[in-house]
Amino acid sequence: MNMKSISEFKQTLYPHRFSRLLATLTLIFLLGLTGCQLYPYLSTPTLSWDGGKPEESTKPLIVDTQTPFPTITPQPTPTSIFEMGQDGFWVYVTQQGDTLPALASRFGVPVDLIQSEVALSTEGLLSVGLPLLIPDVLEEVLPYTESILPDSEVIYGPSVDGFDAAAYAVEAGGFLAGYSEVVDEETMTGPEIVKRVAVETSTNPRLLLAFLEYRSGWLLGYPEGAAEERYPLGYGAGEDTGLYKELMITAKLLAQGFYGWRAGSLTELSFYGGEKGRLSPGLNAGSVALMHLFATLCTREGWEYCLFDPESFIDFYQNLFGDAEQRAAQVEPYLLESTQEPDLTFPFATGEGWSLTGGPHITWQTGTPWGALDFAPITGEPYCAVSVRWVTAAAPGLVVRSERSVVALDLDGDGDEGTGWVLIYQHIAEEDRVSVGAWLDQDAPIGHPSCEGGKASGTHLHFARKFNGEWMGVGEPFPLILSGWRAYAGEYPYRGFLQKEEEFITASPVGAGGSLIIRDE
Length: 521
What we know:
There is one protein chain. This protein has 12 helices and 25 strands. By secondary structure, it is of the alpha+beta class. β9 and β10 form a beta hairpin. The longest helix has 22 residues, at 242-263. The chain is globular, with a radius of gyration of 24 Å.
């Protein structure tokens, strides 16, 4: 997309409107008519902004910080082919991230009724582009079968490729650029908040910025009354006010759709107002993530307007950030049957006693897979003390993030948290914490476990994994194995166990005897 002035860009988005204010009022009116949830902002202002509305800028708005894409023949991940076969079967072509159990759930059939010319395994990923014959047993599905957003546009993965959300927001020069808010006792600017939510939740920053602009007009404009808005994105979730918490809700809803579809646990949408609809089983995870987000805010009619109207959010997104499919063609498929897991050890030294205090639970925000484990050192130290014990590198890698109690270890060493395998360590005390840019060998010290950061009931380490920006669960297709011990989830979060041959370690929040781990190699 060519660079445009801010005023020219607004005219692209709102070609038949005389002013930004009129455009905003028109959008609110249309969303109200079509059933999108909007909240009045009547509460006492609690947020801040550092100035008045400036003169209309004529400086160019840099739409993307990357070099423009060369002309190419797009080769995206094969999308599903829905053709009604004879005798009531669908022909489906596998996509990245597909597993046999998830497909069975989406199509509503037993695993053994899915047919292929090659042998299929219930473990691991299926090959991309594999034709399958699946019985058509679903009575009614929503009439939207085409992909509307690639997977890579939802996650903080390879397509982010150095895009700086904070710098982009500042350059845009709208209300967001001058906004500030206190988050976890730290004053942060609006652009800093967007970048933080994107990185920490592993959500694509382009999507967060576009959704914010679509719902509030904060990125490019100066909506009247913006400084008094407690719910800039319109969720109205009680005390969860301000930009940070509303963006965190957005990341949660996207994750619920994305990872729920990946796992086959989410197969229908619940629209605002109570109506439900079964999703077409051939969709991709990225599309379902966006559909789920808008279903939470909109009635069925409003949802269709926002996503499938000729002036939909998708068109809005493309106008703002260029061709999403073209970006996806550069990096997808990024999740393949041939993907190899790294060889990991327990993240602490040999011979030490630690406890498995938390079995598999969410890797980060609500909606992410049960891919995290909690380990607590057994030292007899006071509750929530910064332990004398060291958390160590479970594999060699480059430290790409070390802040707010979190260390991100990039195992491919390219310095990009959105590519390859990345290990996430949380509740690492600020004192002695490893610095960004440090290369760590396996077993090198990272820092001390503590209660710092997030919610912690005692000194411990929260350990999780990402691959190409996707949070990974502990089970198939990439089981979590540490020093030969494989993690298994329980019926409820924080339950579960580790197994190595005939030995078991059972999670216990109070460090009961069966949770003891002594790394022996």
